[in-house]
Amino acid sequence: MHFKWIYEPLSPQMQSAAKELGEKLNMSTILAQLLIRRGITTESAAKRFFRPQLNDIINPFLMKDMDVAVDRLNDAMGRKERIMVYGDYDVDGCTSVALVYKFLQQFYSNIEYYIPDRYEEGYGVSRKGIDYAHQSGVKLVIILDCGIKAIEEIAYAKSLGIDFIICDHHVPDEEMPPAVAILNPKRPDDHYPFKHLSGCGVGFKFMQAFAKNNGIPFSRLIPMLDLCAVSIAADLVQVEEENRILAFHGLKQLNQNPSLGLKAIIDICGLSGKEISMSDIVFKIGPRINASGRMESGKESVSLLVEKDYNVALQSAKHINEYNEQRKDIDKQMTEEANQIVARLESQKKQSSIVLYDENWKKGVIGIVASRLTEIYFRPTVVITRDGDFATGSARSVMGFDIYSAIKSCRDLLINFGGHTYAAGLTMRWDDVPRFVERFHQYVDNHILPEQTEAILHIDEIIDFKDITKKMHHDLKKFSPFGPGNLKPRFCTNNVYDYGTSKVVGREQEHIKLELIDSKSSNVVNGIAFGQSASARYIKSKRSFDIAYTIEDNVFRHNNVQLQIEDIRLTESDENDEHNAL
After folding, report:
1. Do the beta carbons of residue 34 and residue 478 sit within 8 Å?
2. How far is CA 89 from CA 113, 117, 254, 294, 301, in A?
3. Fewest CB atoms within 10 A around its CB: which of 306, 516, 569, 581?
4. Could you tell me the pLDDT band of residue 580, with boundaries at 50, 70 and 90?
5. To 5 degrees, how large is the angle CA 395–CA 339–CA 373?
6. Distance, CA of 363 to CA of 330 (rounded, Å)
7. What is the largest CA-CA distance in the chain?
């Protein structure tokens, strides 16, 4: 895979501003330029960025319906009504339910939680869930990370005397459900200043408002922030403004004093004693929380997240880890099958999007397969499987393309749909799948820009190895937590050489472990290039090449750095050598 590298130098004025800002902050001009690129141009703004303060989180009562939601919750408690906390079966939904349930349980005992079964009930509010609530005497349902489109279901609940408070962050339709309160910063009539909260973030704001209204000190909410950080990382929402504050302090909680359930997951996936990052959540913690909902029931994950006995939590985490291993096997098999289909379809090469469907694919894994295909082919992708007379699909997008709008354009064929710019889900009749495929392809062809289907690496700064000092690495860590809206800085160094000790590694000899020098210093820098062993012969020939990379901790050498090399650019005349191995 060849990437197109894009680098846009700062203007002379901005470079001058960066130099001045760097001097004020005792920071290299290179890193000050990264601040300027993030719109941070003053010393005070930089200090707020590097030291996010919980005092700066937004007043929750600025969110529309928040006062109504708090009043209804207070009434329910005052009247001793049974309350159900209901949520989606993914990481965001499970952390949302765990947070609200754990917090309210400290003050109120007539409360339970409910996660719908992905295979029996599907996404969002189900009739089965409402009937269960009715039979259990529930009078108030707090629904998290879903519900914004459940018009008929919530109307049905209302007819049974059950009120709903919706805490969602998905894009609403023109018509909204008949809930007593709808907390969603994406409501067109909501003036809440930050629009990109996770579902768990909306739940946290509700609990913040409830605490404020009832004189409960904010400090009681701080132990819940680890769940917020997990949801922000796993749901890939913007890591800026209020989310940055929640993620920053949530990571602090996760590293210093995590809840017992999260501690058990940390121990199971080999993160004990390590400084946990957003990346660790995305690749290790999140998939395990997701796995029970994908393979069996998301209720197991919530049960783990609210557990108060570490030994019980550890056994539960081991069980969920087994689900994750099963999930990985199915994911691999389905991705291979999907790749074979793409390879066979000559038309896919000409089209701007991919839509694949198979009756036998497991519903819980199609989202992961859609993500894999998007990463491999750089096309908006929908993966669909059959569920009786119906089809369930999961969609993922490429940078800059709104897949939610593409799916919405086919809404007359859909029974249900919902999601974000980059990820969405949908349900339709199985017989309508061919028409959906045709319409979806047509919409994407008409709306996507050519560069959105290219493999592009945006380079933040071009540097030399001599610029990578211990201080620079220390200061660079202050830019975390990383994620959408604050991506890990990507650097480029030109004209680097093998020091003579680079080698191919990995079970299938697919990676390269590198020791490099550049033309401007004798510093030897360690690097790892995953899946790029095709370039090994060229590298060993002592010819120069360019690298694009991020700077990471070297886990094998204390106080040292390792470059995670995302792409290796050879000189054009020598590109044929790429395909030879060491």
Report:
1. no
2. 12, 8, 22, 8, 9
3. 581
4. very low
5. 30
6. 11
7. 78
In our burial notation (b when 16+ CB lie closer than 10 A, e otherwise), range 300-314 reads: bbbbbbbbeeeeebb
Q: In this predicted structure, what is the pLDDT of residue 9?
A: 94
- Tell me the two tokens of residue 421: 């710019």
- Interior angle at CA 581, CA 579 and CA 582, nearest 5: 150
| Residue 579 scores a pLDDT above 50 | no
Asked whether 492 and 5 are in contact (CB, 8 A), the reply is yes
563-571: average pLDDT? 91
Measured distance CA(558)–CA(274) in Å, rounded: 12
Residue 325 has pLDDT above 60, yes or no: yes
Which one, of 228, 288, 235, lies nearest residue 254 by Cα?
A: 228
**552 CB-side CA count, 13 A:** 18
**Beta-sheet pairing, 138-144 with 163-167:** parallel
* Mean pLDDT of the 440-458 span: 92
3-state secondary structure of 232: helix
Is pTM beyond 0.85 here?
yes
What confidence tier does 576 reach under pLDDT thresholds 50, 70, 90? very low
Distance CA(30)–CA(141), nearest Å, equals 51
**Residue 114 structure tokens:** 């409910």
Q: What is the mean pLDDT of residues 226-249?
A: 95
Residues 262, 421, 487: CA angle, nearest 5 degrees: 60
Mean pLDDT of the chain: 92
Distance CA 157, CA 145 (A): 18
Give percent above pLDDT 70 in the chain.
Answer: 95
Which DSSP category does 394 fall into?
Answer: E
Report the half-sphere exposure of 582 (CA within 13 A, side-chain side): 18
Q: Which amino acid is at 509?
A: Q
Q: Which residues of 147-183 are buried (b: 16+ CB within 10 A; e: fewer)?
A: bbbbbebbebbbeeebbbbbbbbbbbeeebbbbbbbb
Question: How far is residue 145's CA from residue 111's CA, in Å, rounded to a whole number?
Answer: 19
Token pair listed for 120: 């029996």
